[in-house]
Specification:
49 residues, 2 strands, 20% strand
């Protein structure tokens, strides 16, 4: 799976998957992306105290 950003401010995320990708491989790739997004969001946002 290839992931790239697009748009004037990189606000679009594109996922390019092989035509032969299995459902489990797709789910695994999306899970990895989701976890990375959660991790970076936690690092970039401050929690209210």
């Amino acid at each position: 799976m290839v992931i790239e950003t697009a748009g004037p401010n990189d606000e679009v995320v594109k996922f390019f998957c092989p035509l032969t990708i299995s459902e489990s491989e797709l789910e695994q790739g999306l899970h990895i992306f989701e976890q990375a997004a959660v991790d970076i969001a936690n690092k970039l946002t401050r929690k209210a105290s």
